[in-house]
Amino acid sequence: MAAAEGARLHHIARESADVKRLAAFYQEVLGFERIETPKFGEFEVIWLRLPPSFSLHLIEKDPRSKLPEGPSAVADPSALPRGHHISFAVSNYETFVQTLKEKGIKTFEKTQPDGKTKQVFFFDPDGNGLEVGSW
């Protein structure tokens, strides 16, 4: 038996040099809504929610951080490392992909062998990998 009882995913955090730009992307592309965010003093934080309960915490990049900055070293979504992404499901897959293309977002699409499940891979403005599927 696991040590934790009732565990569930609560949120994912992403650092960004421009949290306002990143928040706008997630709101416009995936429909996140901005929620109340506590003040942390010396750095900016924006909390977003994708109803009913998933949260994304965008945190101003620590200038002392050794993490890479800017777009991902992987510029081509078809080369996105399989373990480097957050995945979402949508009910309007085809129109969603069309919207990405209209926004000029570079994408890579594939269909699973079952012929039913479609996936699109792309990056947010900070180079974080994203996948959206038709599950």
Automatic annotation (TrEMBL):
It comes from the Eukaryota. SUPFAM superfamilies: Glyoxalase/Bleomycin resistance protein/Dihydroxybiphenyl dioxygenase. Residues 8-135 form the VOC domain. InterPro entries: Glyas_Bleomycin-R_OHBP_Dase, Glyas_Fos-R_dOase_dom, VOC_core. This is VOC domain-containing protein. It comes from Musa acuminata subsp. malaccensis.
